[in-house]
Structure formats: structure tokens, C-alpha cells
Amino acid sequence: MNKSKVIHLESKERLFGKVRAYIESIELFLEESDKAIPLLLKALNYTDHQLKHEIILLLGNFAKQEVAWPLYQLIIDPGEDEEIRHLASIELSVIFPFLEEPQPLIDHLLEDLKSPDPELRVHAAFALGWEGNTQAAIPLVELLYDADIRVQQTAVNALSNMRDDRILTLLLERLEHGPLEQKRS
């Protein structure tokens, strides 16, 4: 007689318990990062707004390729809460300089700058604004003239985050001659 093996499925309660343990103990997260990162990424699909916020902040502190693409997926999801999309774009801009292979993701974000959706353009622009990302400079400069003022403001912020003296001159000129909303950025 064959005994069938029992497959234990993780309940949501157990999943959330582990997630909470990792959020509350950075030491535990670091010790078990090989297990913790996939679990936290899985939990992003099932959590409420607050827990998702905490997971994104925790994952954003670790520059790993497997974290970058899920953050990107949050950015491009029009059904996702705008605060979560914004937080994902911030965390992505923070980890970008540490990624081993950022180019495919950069290429996607550069394409997203051309989207008809202004929210996506805002989040893509913010994610691309990190020190040393000179390849995004020209597309971000073009966004200074976008029809949506929020996109323009985000482009100013992203260009400022690049910390490139060549861009500083352009931003100063835009500050002098640009719309009031950009001057406030």
C-alpha cells in the first residue's frame, strides 16, 4: 500500500507571521535572507497596504536583482495604490546603483517614460533618478516639457538626484524660465 505524501501548504496566517518576524527582526531577516526574500516577495501579492509598505521598505534596503523586478511590477501596475507605486519607485532608485545587471530594467523604464499614462511616467522618472545614471538624462530632460505638471516636477527631482554638474546648469535655467510648479520642485 502506497502512502501518499502530504504536501503542507502555508496558510496565510503562517505566511504573515513569518513576514512579521522578518520585519521586526533585521537580524533574522539577514540570517535567513535566502528564505526571507522569496517569502516577502510572495507576501506582496496578499498583504494589506500597511504590510506591503513595510515589506517594500525592508526589501529596498537590499540590492538584489530578484527584488528589482518585483518593485518594477508594482510601479507599472495601474491597479496598485499610488502610494505603493511611489514607494516602489523610490526604493528602486535607491537599489539601482547596486544591481549587477540594471540595463534591462533601465530599458523598460525608459520606454515607460513614453507611456500615455502620466502616473507611469511619474514613477518611471523617479526610479531613473539616481546618481550616475547619465543614460536617462536626455529622456528626463525631455520630460521637463511634458504636458503633465507632476511629470515635469518629478523630472526635476530625478535630474537633481543624478548629481551631475552638467545637468545643474540646465536645471538652473529651467528654474529661471520654467513654470512656477517646477520652481517649487
Please give the radius of gyration in angstroms: 19 Å
Instruction: Report helical residue fraction.
Output: 55-70%
Shape: elongated
Distance between the termini: 72 Å
Average pLDDT confidence is 87
- Look up the CATH topology of the domain at 63-184: Leucine-rich Repeat Variant
CATH architecture of the domain at 63-184: Alpha Horseshoe
Number of strands: 0
CATH superfamily of the domain at 63-184: Leucine-rich Repeat Variant
Q: What is the percentage of strand-forming residues?
A: under 5%
Total count of helical runs of at least 4 residues: 12
Structure class: mainly alpha
Query: Class of the domain at 63-184, according to the CATH hierarchy?
Result: Mainly Alpha
Order of helices and strands: HHHHHHHHHHHH
Protein name: HEAT repeat domain-containing protein
Pfam family, one: HEAT_2
Organism: marine sediment metagenome
GO molecular function: oxidoreductase activity
Detailed description of the structure:
Pfam families: HEAT_2. InterPro entries: ARM-like (IPR011989), ARM-type_fold (IPR016024), PBS_lyase_HEAT (IPR004155). GO terms for molecular function: oxidoreductase activity. This is HEAT repeat domain-containing protein. The protein is an all-alpha fold. It has a domain of 122 residues: Leucine-rich Repeat Variant (Alpha Horseshoe), CATH 1.25.10. The chain has 12 helices and no strands. Helix 4 runs parallel beside helix 6, helix 7 runs antiparallel to helix 8 and helix 8 runs parallel beside helix 10. The mean pLDDT is 87.
